[in-house]
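cron nightly-structures :: item 1 of 1
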Amino acid sequence: MNLKDFKPKQRFSTKARYYENRLDYPDKIIEILKKEIDFNSKFTIADIGSGTGKLSLLFIPGGNLIYAIEPNREMMKLAVSSLKSNNNFQPILACAEQTGLADESVDLICIGQAFHWFDKQECYGEFKRILKNPGYLAIFGKKSDFVDKVLNEEYLAIFDQLCPKPEKRPNYDDEDVEQLFSPFKPGKIEVSENIRQTSDRIIKGTLSYSYAPDGDCPEGLKLVEVLEECLNKYSVDGFFETVVRTKITVGQIK
């Protein structure tokens, strides 16, 4: 199956409303970038596949100019709505393969939970075109698990059953990422933090996933019902302890 068959530019139109319930990126990312690439407030950033602006939000307090590149109109609307008061946030309705940015216009490309939707060959050429020399690439991946291992296993079983993933779905592994940086060896850092979540945030966060059914269709209503039943069994004062691991791969691309 071709990547385009998944319609990545349209896929998230019905998911945007749930995105505020996705977990934020840790503030420690800024300190890590300072250490790894001498990041500072003068860096111009391209946040590619920026979604509703969760990653861009990290860089706004530092005063960096941020070009938020997002192909989905509904996701971009939410980003603009929440971040429009910041003059350094510049939204651009475009894709990773054709950002619309000028040659050698950015110091740092940041990619959150979106890299697997990109055409790897096409975006590599675009990254080289828009990056200054030297310029840097940082890719962020997040994984969360419930501290309660029994709950975690039950949640994953529910997700696998009610949110079936296509057999040939877009994906990437460490080798795909490292090929962008070769022959340079990227820095790899993992940040771990514990977060308390409500059942409402967990359920809406689940509905934001690309392969989850929409919450107002029969399959989505069933998913919500089953998750509520599961979470009610394990609730402690209405909260759930979650371990969130953010993997950061950063360096120069070849």
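cron nightly-structures :: done
Residues 218-234 form the longest helix (17 residues).
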